[in-house]
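Action item from last meeting closed. Structure (229 res):
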């Protein structure tokens, strides 16, 4: 491989990592926003049903966001697979910033946790968005004739198998996120010292723990009957 080919290959990898990082940050923003909305379940049925009603009553906003997020998801999956394959076949890699870093469990398993998250996402959409699983609990109106999301969540997460499956999947998401922020910082050359590297890793880890605890609290507290109908 001549120097010109190496340079083109290097820029190709960098470009893919930038698109991967950008799509990942968009999806992370959605994950945080989705969590904030879902945590309204702790404020009671009216709060989360009002949140769901607002979303479904603004269909242009809702479907625009869904299409945009779908594009970001496809982009993220495509570039993740592409970079993983290139990483396995390449003999050398050139980055904007290159430093010998010890690989973490999260970084080594990004592609595997990513696959689990993708499967989980599909199941989650079939479950709560389209009502394919447990359809008896889906689309039930509340006293204000709104979609009773509160009832749906309580009935579904009262099932130990469903709660356990969600918690296990969310732990995989947490492992994935724990490396994601650090990886984005590395891609965009935000970190360039040992101290910055360690800080970025700590922030990435702490942020992922906070996010996942927030998500896990919902099925856990419902299954433990801390919140109920």
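Sequence:
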């Amino acid at each position: 491989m001549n120097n010109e080919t190496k340079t083109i290959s290097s820029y190709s990898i960098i470009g893919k990592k930038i698109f991967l990082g950008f799509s990942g940050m968009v999806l992370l923003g959605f994950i945080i926003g989705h969590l904030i909305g879902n945590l309204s379940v702790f404020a009671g049925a009216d709060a989360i049903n009002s949140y769901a009603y607002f979303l479904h009553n603004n269909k242009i906003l809702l479907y625009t966001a869904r299409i945009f997020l779908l594009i970001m998801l496809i982009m993220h999956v495509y570039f993740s697979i592409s970079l993983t394959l290139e990483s396995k076949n390449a003999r050398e890699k050139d980055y904007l910033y290159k430093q010998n870093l010890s690989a973490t469990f999260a970084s080594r398993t990004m592609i595997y946790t990513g696959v689990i998250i993708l499967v989980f996402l599909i199941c989650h959409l079939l479950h709560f968005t389209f009502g394919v699983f447990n359809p008896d609990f889906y689309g039930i109106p509340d006293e204000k004739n709104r979609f009773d999301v509160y009832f749906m969540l309580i009935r579904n997460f009262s099932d130990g198998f469903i709660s356990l499956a969600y918690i296990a999947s969310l732990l995989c998401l947490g492992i994935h996120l724990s490396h994601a922020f650090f990886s984005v910082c590395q891609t965009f050359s935000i970190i360039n010292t040992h101290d910055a590297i360690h800080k970025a890793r700590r922030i990435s880890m702490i942020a992922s723990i906070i996010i996942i605890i927030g998500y896990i609290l919902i099925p856990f507290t419902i299954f433990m009957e801390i919140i109920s109908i």
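Note appended to the action item: DSSP finds eight helices and no strands in the chain.
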